[in-house]
Amino acid sequence: MASETSPANLPPGYMVRAAGEGKLGGVARPRVMTGGGNSAKQQPWPPRRPEKGAIVQPSSERLGFVRNPLLRHSAERDQDLERHAAHPDAVTVAIAGDIPILRKNGSAVTGLLPLADLERAGARHEQAFLGTAAERPVFGTLLEPAAADLFKSGAEHLAIDLRSIAVQGLLPPDELGIVAEAKALLFWHSRHRFCANCGAPTVLSCAGFRRDCAACKTQHFPRTDPVAIMLVHRGERCLLARQARFIANSYSCLAGFIEPGETIEDAVRRETFEETGIRVGAVRYMASQPWPFPSSLMIGCIGEALTEEITLDRDELEDGRWFAKDEVRRMLAREHPEGLITPPPMAIANFLMRSWAEA
């Protein structure tokens, strides 16, 4: 297991120097290199207490979909698959079209159903072995969209869209991450039943984490689309915007897909300039969040604006403007005098706004 100071746990762009460099109190204090090229600067790791007014990264535990306790068994997914399926405690995430099926458990609900519950669904499509949790095998099963109505007609189940499940906190955080993984993976299967190389049908393999084409031997792997989402600030003000599809009075961070051959930092700068005309300089990574709508990874950053004049891309945004810290705090607390609000706490946009506003 990696320690706190190991390269596996460092943010992107950081590099641990040789052991023993940068001693503190007679104990080796590792140093890291921040930035790139000749402009890189040595910084202590772990970082020292931040200066007053610095942006401090709070815990991201409240974010939706970030906790996933599964042991994935990546290297041996195909091994003992039948044994896992025959395990008496095996469970599955059931997705009807794109709607998760939940099982009532007293006053609570669970997204992990006994395999026997699938008998109600009728036709099934792909089933993937997701891994084990506390030695209990966990699968993901794709059902026909109509199966949602079949489950809702009974007294033991619910069929609710995943976004509502997350916002309402219907599932424990550990289960929510598992359901999100299953939804994203099964969506990919539903869109890749034919080979993109030759057009022939593909078949599930590697316990659901690959599709193979028998005709041209191409192997297809699940995709995750990286998205940069950024809180851009200049001094004591930050840039927020809204699209016409947002709920009334809601403002959020800018975001956009990272393009091929593009760094995270450059994606932050490009998207901000394209949508608002604001130039961005320094960019700092904060946190990431799986976003299964349908299968993205939100990469949260803080960016420092170099300019102030906003020129909105009206094809993308309905409105965008600068907000003072106190105003953002009131939006987060749902106390803004104009009724302006932020995305809910389960969204990484809320996390970024809170990180900046509470600095």
Low-confidence stretches: 1-47
Q: What is the overall shape?
A: globular
SSE class:
alpha+beta
Number of helical segments with 4 or more residues: 7
Amino-to-carboxy terminus distance: 32 Å
Could you tell me the CATH topology label of the largest domain.
Nucleoside Triphosphate Pyrophosphohydrolase
Beta-strand content bin: 25-35%
Helix content: 10-25%
Number of domains: 3
Largest sheet: 7 strands, mixed
Mean pLDDT: 87
The name of the CATH superfamily of the largest domain reads Nucleoside Triphosphate Pyrophosphohydrolase
CATH architecture annotation name of the largest domain:
Alpha-Beta Complex
* Rg calc: 23 Å
Count of DSSP strands: 20
N-to-C series of helices and strands: EEEEHEEEEEEHEHHEEEEEEHEEEHH
Quickly name the level 1 CATH class of the largest domain: Alpha Beta
